[in-house]
Specification:
This protein is 49% helix and 9% strand. It contains 6 helices and 3 strands; from the N terminus they run βαααββααα. The protein is flat. InterPro entries: Zn_Tnp (IPR026889).
Length: 144
């Protein structure tokens, strides 16, 4: 007797991307970065046979039961895999952060600078580093 994990039910975001050739239309229109195409491609393949299948058998040799489980993509852009990774990251950060009311800061950029960073994405690393340095400077100045 062979059994799979049940009938495959596409995840809602997958249905959104695949309905009416939506993702194909985005690809045909162009303008997407390679990393965006890779992330969506992984998400669409997640939980399908495209990424491979693991076979699980009973410990008893005489037992005919087999269960097939499709592999996941592990992408942080995938609603399923990314959620698991995000939850793990949050748990790790909560153990590292002090027990206080506020543990979230937002550093914003004026919209006039968005085009600069859109064509020079690597500059965002420097902006984030500078934001952290300024925050640490302010904390040291207050004896924190």
């Amino acid at each position: 007797m062979t059994r799979s994990g049940g009938d495959f039910q596409p995840r809602p975001l997958k249905r959104l991307f695949t309905a009416n050739q939506c993702w194909t239309s985005f690809l045909d229109a162009g303008g997407l970065r390679d990393i965006e195409v890779e992330a969506v491609t992984k998400m669409l393949a997640c939980g399908t046979r495209i990424l491979g299948v693991k076979e699980y058998n009973c410990d008893k040799p005489e037992c005919p039961h087999v269960r097939y489980v499709t592999n996941s993509c592990g992408s942080r852009a995938c609603p399923s895999c990314g959620k698991k990774a995000t939850d793990l990251w949050i748990a790790t950060q909560l153990n590292r952060l002090p027990d206080c009311d506020w543990v979230h800061l937002v550093f914003t950029l004026p919209d006039t600078l968005w085009p600069v960073f859109e064509s020079n994405r690597w500059l965002l690393n420097d902006v984030c580093r500078l934001a952290v340095e300024n925050l640490l400077y302010a904390a040291r100045k207050r004896g924190l």
